[in-house]
Amino acid sequence: MTDWVLRLIDAGGYWGIFFLMILENIFPPIPSELIMGIGGIRVGQGRMDMEWLLLAGTIGTTIGNYFWYLVGHILGFHRLKPLIDRYGRWATLEWRDVEALDHLFGKYGQIVVFIFRFMPAFRTMISLPAGLFRMGHVRFLLWTTAGALVWNVILAYAGYVLGQNFRHIDHYVGPAATVCVVGAVVIYLWRLATWRPRG
Predict the structure, then answer these.
(1) Is 81 contained in some domain?
(2) Helix (H, G, I), strand (E, B), or coil: what is residue 199?
(3) What's the alpha-carbon Rg for the chain, to the nearest Å?
(4) Does residue 163 sit within a domain?
(5) Structural contact between residues 65 and 141, judged by C-beta atoms closer than 8 angstroms
(6) What is the pLDDT of residue 136?
(7) Cα separations (Å) of 137 from 58, 107, 142, 144?
(8) Cα–Cα distance between 52 and 18 in angstroms, integer?
(9) Alpha carbon distances (Å) from 140 to 11, 51, 133, 137, 190
(10) How far apart are the C-alpha atoms of 48 and 20, rounded to whole Å?
């Protein structure tokens, strides 16, 4: 994956970063750590400017997250009711759980979206419930952009400081992402086996 990302960044420059960061948030297996890290390396080599790198990466991240937000927004909170009634067992959810999540997003949505921007895998997934529970468009975009900018600054400067050694991050990011996915599956299967409706 590293070679493909490198080729696209070198061929497309800031547009390559922009495109990859959109793609990374629609298809999470592409790691933002690698994209922005390589961008940071290119800054250290004098082939990119940090300001433009962060602008391209943050706008791309926000657009990718907004895609999933719109999917949730179009589906809508109230359209969930028949799905939860019918398939709630498989989601290990009752309607009261969905209402509690709706209340959570209504009260703390911006904090949830901001904090989840720093969590592997979950930073993209959080956009769907934000849309489902009708978090405001402007509020979502502002807090997503803020979280994305902070995360991208960390990654880009890490690449800038670590230089060429940052290329080896792909050897660690891939297995780490796999561990996160496997862990999520195990937790889901355990919850599915032990879950009982309260009603």
Answers:
(1) yes
(2) coil
(3) 19
(4) yes
(5) no
(6) 85
(7) 17, 15, 9, 10
(8) 10
(9) 32, 23, 11, 5, 32
(10) 16
* Number of compact structural domains in the chain: 1
**Cβ 113 vs Cβ 143: under 8 Å:** yes
d(CA 30, CA 32): 7
Distance CA(190)–CA(178), nearest Å, equals: 18
CA distance linking residue 30 with residue 21, whole number of Å: 9
Could you give the angle at the alpha carbon of 35 between the alpha carbons of 29 and 36, nearest 5°?
130
Q: Is residue 166 part of a domain?
A: yes
Name the one residue in this structure whose structure tokens are 């468009």: 137
pLDDT at residue 29, as a whole number: 64
Going by the DSSP 8-state scheme, the letter that residue 94 receives in this structure is: -
Domain that holds residue 37: 2-194
Q: HEC states along 19-80?
A: HHHHHHHHCCCCCHHHHHHHHHHHHHCCCCCHHHHHHHHHHHHHHHHHHHHHHHHHHCCCCH
pLDDT block averages, 10 residues each, the chain of length 199:
77 92 80 85 90 95 92 80 69 69 76 77 75 85 92 89 64 64 74 67
Give the C-alpha separation, 60 to 26, whole Å. 11
- What is the reported pLDDT for 125? 75
Kindly state whether residue 199 falls inside one of the protein's structural domains: no
Considering the entire predicted model, what is its pTM?
0.74
